[in-house]
Amino acid sequence: MPRVTIIGAGRVGSTLAQRLLEQYNVDVVLLDIAPDLPRAIALDLMQARALGGHDRQIIGTNDYWDTAGSDVIVIAAGLPRKPGMTREDLISVNARIVIDATRQALARSPEAALLVITNPLDVMTYLAWRASGLPPHRVMGMAGVLDTARFRHFIAEALAVSWHDVSALVIGTHGDTMVPLPRYATVHGIPLTELLEEEAIAEIVHRTQFGGAELVQLFRNGSAYQAPAAAAAQMVACLLGQRRQLLPASVPLQGAYGVEDLCIGVPIYLGAQGVEQVVELDLTKPERDAFERSVTALQEAIKTASYLVD
After folding, report:
1. Which of 9, 132, 156, 221 is positioned for an S-S bond with 163, CB 3.0–4.6 A?
2. How far apart are CA 236 and CA 307, in angstroms?
3. Which CATH number characterizes residue 305's domain?
């Protein structure tokens, strides 16, 4: 049975554990530094198996040795955003958490793929990649799948259609400088630009860019967890070979899009071998300019924490 370790038993980590157990053929190890918390969540989920109709196993632990032999390591540990706090405000605290978790987990599972969820996502993915020593194809961050899901939802809502009919794409950072691409959005094959006015599209783009902040304000003492967990589960399924998909993710770039030594959201083929290919889009000048602004903002953010892995 494939084994997935989730580091961080907060809302995202515990919700991801539940989704993996109930929807995919995989066993889970849930690790957290909080005494008893991961064991309590694991016991609760084990007791739910008879009602959920599956026999998958979950272990809750505070010990990294229990994670040995994992096929995928998901890092969801770290502080969540609070109202008025940007993802970048979290860098100094979460960087140390992610670097330590990466090194400890990979010491027990050196062949695992690494999926990062902790915010600020692109910075944490870069630091985890640097700390891991893994080749680029085995490290990725969950961002574009979530941002694209939000983009699709807002389009479907505006047109009062099923999300099944909507195809869309978001690239760039997982933050305010993300780049939703209306030119690549379609509704049952019809370009979005033929269905909505420019002003309405601009409003959807803006709401997508600030979708996380909107939820932080509504939660008041927390942030999104259902959609992030669902997005991560989709990527884990790809890494376990249960599907192969073309989707956006934050990955280490080695020249694609003119970017070197940086993790940022781009379309990729994701499968059992990890990142199989980076897909380079033919961006218009406004799209390219927006993407480059995203790159510049990310480079500045990374400067504040990259010394931690030197």
Report:
1. 156
2. 30
3. 3.90.110.10
Q: What is the pLDDT of residue 89?
A: 73
What is the tens place of the pLDDT at every residue in 44-53? 999 999 998 8
Question: Which positions ≥6 away from 107 have C-beta within 8 Å?
Answer: 64
Residues 70 and 165 in one domain: no
Mean pLDDT value of segment 159-168: 97
pTM check: above 0.90: yes
For the chain, the first-to-last Cα distance in angstroms comes to 36
Domain edge (last residue) among 124, 141, 158: 141
Domain identity same for 239 and 218: yes
- Helix intervals (H) in the chain: 11-23, 37-47, 49-52, 91-108, 121-132, 144-159, 198-209, 211-219, 226-239, 285-303
Q: Is 174 annotated in the active site?
A: yes
Catalytic pick from 137, 164, 174, 206? 174
Residue 111, domain extent:
3-141
SS3 282: coil
Whether 186 and 211 share a structural domain: yes
Judgement on whether residues 189 and 303 belong to the same structural domain of the protein:
yes
Same domain, 129 and 237: no
Residues 6 and 28 sit within 8 Å (Cβ to Cβ) = yes
Mean pLDDT of 238-246: 97
Query: How far apart, in Å, are the Cα atoms of 198 and each of 189, 192, 202, 205?
Result: 19, 10, 6, 10
Say if residue 112's pLDDT is above 70. yes
> How many Å apart are CA 170 and CA 267, to the nearest integer?
9
Q: Domain end: 141, 162, 178, which one?
A: 141
